[in-house]
Amino acid sequence: MTEKKIRVLVAKPGLDGHDRGAKVVARALRDAGMEVIYTGLRQTPEMIAEAALHEDVDVVGLSILSGAHMALAPRILELLKSNGQADVKVFIGGIIPDEDMPRLKEIGITGIYGPGASTEDIVKDIREAFK
Amino acid sequence: MSLTQSVLEGNRLSLSRLLTQVENNSPEGRAALIELFPHTGRAHLIGVTGAPGTGKSSLVNQLTLYYRKQQNKRVAIIAVDPSSPFTGGAVLGDRVRMRDLSGDEGVFIRSMASRGSVGGLAQTTASFTQVFDSAGYDIIIIETVGAGQSEVDIARLAHTTIVVEAPGLGDEIQAIKAGILEIADVLVINKADRPGVENTERALRTTLELAHPTKRVFRHHGQVMSIDAPEANAKIWIPPINKTVATDGKGIAELAESIAKHVAHIRHSGDWALRDRARLGSEMEAVLQGALMSQFMSEVPKDKYKEIMEKVIQRSISPYEAVKILLNGNSK
């Protein structure tokens, strides 16, 4: 029982009101043996950064369907950094237009997953990030 | 500056990282626990347990709000949820009900997976309370996994154990079984706005009266009869029943009052010190067990261990014989 578990915060920032996808991902990560902290709907970037700090997570997974990703993602990265958690890997799932992807990668988002992405890929990428 | 120093000075990132070290039972984590121990023993440990869905997390949320607003106490919350026995993974969802607490630096919420432990807590939950205690949190609330009937480890850890019930979950027979009700210092019927609350209250009250007789007057075959209570004894604590609606905060002030009375009672009766003794004693035993096991495993030749275990699996010797052989050091 002393093996290091990967801890993941699954959070849903912004105002869109359904978290089916986030729950599916949370479940898949659990089945892959990770410890998933699930925080529910309508989280502000401040709430997400605070939860990441309390929980000492390795990964933050954001589910964003509202189109507000270009505002939310940089803010969350900035808060993580100012809390001393620049090493936390941030993944985004949701509706992200192709043209926004390079910019998100550039500011430090580790992985981006659209509709139809397989949960196996997400699990694989997270594991890869901690090799 | 060392991690422990920085925890003592209130750095929240250091606190969080140390909790991870402790949870993973790393050498750094163990060393820090040794350094922090002299700074422990001040916090009030409150356990919250009860069946899944009774509203434990919502109640913890409201109770914490109360302690922050009314008493300005610093509160740490340890929320334990179960790990999957198959994959070792876990979904820890207690924070969902605690969103009112975000943005308050006087509150620290840490989720914990039970990691194979079956008593309603994780193996390192007690160590977590020591870390928070030394970091200066006045109140540490430990929320157990949704507990059934025998997940009673919390009573050994907490000063005050709150058992949360909700209407419609069980009848009187559930209430008189041994286990979770016996450990209650304070009983809460949450969701008290739901139908059936009177029945739940009656069942709980009957159970309590069986355990702690009070003077009762009743009619039996038309005759008024009474049973006297045993002489009042200041040392006996009778768990109060509190009704709450955790979603809107109803009954929370009264619950906090019951908890305060319980603390005063156990401090006065000497029970606080007894509980501390019992807790530290069982903690030392648990650490000793772990240490003996790992010492033994490092001394026994791996091949021999495997060989003997194989014999057990083949059913040629029993596990008891196997242990005898291993401890005597002579394999046949």
What is the tally of beta strands of chain A? Answer: 5
The chain pair forming the largest interface, with residue counts per chain, is: A-B, 32 and 31 residues
Helix content of chain B: 40-55%
CATH topology of chain A: Rossmann fold
How many helices of chain A?
5
CATH level-1 class of the largest domain in chain B: Alpha Beta
Radius of gyration of chain B in whole Å, from Cα? 23 Å
**CATH architecture grouping of the largest domain in chain B:** 3-Layer(aba) Sandwich
Summarize model confidence as the mean pLDDT of chain B.
Answer: 88
Q: What would CATH call the architecture of chain A?
A: 3-Layer(aba) Sandwich
Given this structure, which CATH class of chain A is correct? Alpha Beta
Q: Please provide the count of β strands of chain B.
A: 10
Q: How many individual domains of chain B?
A: 2
Distance between the termini of chain A: 20 Å
List keywords for this structure.
heterodimer; A: 131 residues; alpha/beta; Rossmann fold; five-stranded parallel β-sheet; 5 helices; 42% helix; 20% strand; B: 332 residues; two-stranded antiparallel sheet; 12 helices; 10 strands; globular
Question: Could you characterize the architecture of this molecule?
Answer:
Chain A has 131 residues and is α/β, with parallel strands linked by helices. Chain A has a single domain, classed as 3-Layer(aba) Sandwich (Rossmann fold), CATH 3.40.50. A five-stranded parallel beta sheet of chain A has the order 2-1-3-4-5, with helices on both faces. In chain A, helix 1 packs across helix 5 and helix 2 runs parallel beside helix 3. Chain A starts with 6 loop residues before the first strand and ends with a helix. With 332 residues, chain B is an alpha/beta fold. Chain B folds into two domains: 253 residues, Rossmann fold (3-Layer(aba) Sandwich); 29 residues. Chain B has a seven-stranded parallel beta sheet with strand order 4-2-5-1-6-7-10, with helices on both faces. In chain B, strands 8-9 form a two-stranded antiparallel ribbon. In chain B, helix 2 crosses helix 3, helix 2 runs antiparallel to helix 5 and helix 4 crosses helix 9. The longest helix of chain B is centred in the last third of the chain and has 29 residues. Chain B is globular. Strand 2 of chain A pairs parallel with strand 3 of chain B, so a sheet runs across the interface.
